[in-house]
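A sample copied in:

***
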Amino acid sequence: MTNVNVDEAYNKQADDYDRFIVKLIPDYLRFNALIPRLAAKPGTVLDIGCGTGNTSARILEAYPKAKLTCIDPSPAMIGIARRKLGDSVTFMESPVEAFQTEERFDLAVSVMVMHNIQTTARRQEVYEKIYSALNPGGAYVSVDIFKGECDLSQKLFMKYWRDFMLESMPMDEVDGKWLALYKEKDKPLKMSEQLAMLKKAGFSSVDIIHKAMNFALILALK
């Protein structure tokens, strides 16, 4: 599926995003709550693939004086984020792979974004752009879905994830919609692959801060 198709899908889902995301992502609220704690009073923040603005809202709660720049390919998502975050935030409508900025940031974040990039080469390019966009000592925080390191762990991850979704959604929606979309569109990497790519991009320190099933929060320092 092309990136254009993915963007169109997110436009259609924008109004329901906040309702279904907590049913899809184990520990979603905890992931978002942890992110502001990983930065030391950032003056400038870049939210890549901001969606409806949930992560930026948590950052602004913790650091109301921070200057935020939010990037997303979906005008519908940006519209919702703008209503949440207000006019003090800068918004840029752009595909993640194509974003450009001359500004430098203390903190960059991406939540459930990178698995949408269809090739590892393009994802590597995005990591390198994020690294370049950070101030010295800046931090990049990524929350995303991962593949297991072996077939067994991948099967277990998928089972546990499916069981989690079934706690709040009917089976036909879980299997016929969300897992079908995962198999058709998503391009998750193994944890070891993503850590290596971040190191290759130039980050000096890369750590797994929190993990829930096949989802994890990674902190990378410049």
Remarks:
- The chain has a mean pLDDT of 92.
- The chain has nine helices and eight strands.
- The domain at 3-147+187-221 is CATH 3.40.50.150 (Rossmann fold).
- Strands lie at 44-48, 67-72, 90-93, 105-111, 134-147, 189-190, 205-212, 215-221.
